[in-house]
Amino acid sequence: MKNIHPLICRKTSVSLPDSAYRRLLAAKKMLSRNGIRFSDHEIYRRLFKEYLKNWRGRGLKTNGLRRYNREGQAYAIHPLYINQVLYASLWQRALHSGESISRMLDLAIRVYLPRLLETLLCAQDLRNSRYWNQRLARRKRQYADFFINYTCHTENNNGRILEYCQKAEIISKADLSVMEIWQLLHQAA
After folding, report:
1. CB of 1 closer than 8 Å to CB of 184
2. Torsion (CA) 182, 153, 64, 22 in degrees, nearest 10
3. pLDDT tens digit string along 3-28?
4. pTM to 2 decimals?
5. Which of 27, 94, 161, 184 could, after both became Cys, cross-link 188 (CB 3.0–4.6 A)?
């Protein structure tokens, strides 16, 4: 199997509804007004990580990926530059659940973007940081920052049987030493 690395980016694209992209642009303007300037790709990366952390699928494997670009809705293709470890974790999730990465991103924009804004804006020294802290404090679940690690290895491939094991692991930064964080920076997303 090919080695993947978190410092090497994968260049691909996603199809997003116009309404989801407008939400993303509004969030970028809000962040920019408060001195935080992120590219679309950085926001996508953070949203994908939130999505993977919060997904708790326990169902059976689907027949295939569900179609996302439905007739009658306005979609646009946007570039996506994402590190290989996170992309592999997303594909593992996509194959298991039958949802495309575009659909995952659309849902993450609708559901997790407000949480991301709260987390980023309450950490800043702003005149309205009290408001963002109160909003974040009302959330039931509070999460520490984390890494996502992905591994895959072939157990058996003899021409009749193909067995492989994929593992995506969410590792909280709160329980790690400085050296462990340094090591994970070079092997996890």
Report:
1. no
2. 10
3. 676 667 788 888 888 889 999 999 99
4. 0.77
5. 184
